[in-house]
Design goal:
alpha/beta, four-stranded parallel beta sheet, 9% strand, elongated
Length: 198
């Protein structure tokens, strides 16, 4: 479909084959989150990211770093075409699912950057002592951040906070390969370990 768009000439490359000449001649670069992170920002090209899910954290980070289009796998093809056209004209485009996720997050009480760091470590199963050491802050400060996080998320426990944050896409997506297989998740073991630090 994209090759049928007027003025669109696809140049296909795979991770590892992407060379500066390819990037320099691209008007629009379409890639997944992993490739975009590895290639970095290309100010000359409008970047469209195709993501596995509408994770608020990833969408916000992408927009902050200059990504113009953000679409979710499985969205309608007209949305992918819309994102490519918008990026070619240096305009932003979010598919319907990504836009709904961002709109929904606007009514929630925002976590501070430090609270997000603490929450990421909580979700990874770290106890307060380890979190304090990693972030070079006092254990009492960690406890205060955890209480604030739980209040803002409406969570009843650390495990609940990690579950809610994961469901809302407030945490960075665990690393995975190109096929979407995750190598690390915020799973039951991490959540059980989070209870120990409560």
């Amino acid at each position: 479909m994209l090759s049928n768009m007027a003025g669109f000439e696809p140049i296909v490359g795979r991770l590892g084959e992407v060379v500066p000449e390819f990037v320099l001649q691209a008007t629009v670069l379409i890639c997944d989150c992993e490739i975009w992170r590895q290639v970095g920002l290309m100010p000359a090209a409008g970047v469209v990211v195709i993501a596995r899910s509408a994770r608020i954290f990833e969408i916000q980070r992408a927009i902050e770093r200059g990504v113009l289009g953000y679409v979710i796998m499985g969205c309608d093809l007209y949305e992918v075409e819309g994102a490519v056209r918008a990026a070619a004209h240096r305009r932003r485009y979010l598919c319907r699912i990504a836009a709904q996720a961002i709109a929904g997050s606007l009514t929630a009480q925002a976590l501070t950057a430090r609270e997000r760091h603490v929450l990421t470590l909580v979700a990874d199963g770290r106890c307060n002592k380890v979190i304090a050491s990693r972030l070079d802050i006092a254990i009492g400060t960690v406890k205060a951040h955890v209480r604030s996080i739980m209040h803002k998320l409406g969570a009843s426990s650390r495990t609940d906070a990690a579950r809610i944050a994961t469901a809302r896409g407030l945490l960075p997506e665990p690393p995975g390969d190109f096929n979407g297989t995750r190598t690390n998740t915020y799973g039951p073991n991490s959540l059980q370990q989070a209870l120990i630090g409560a």
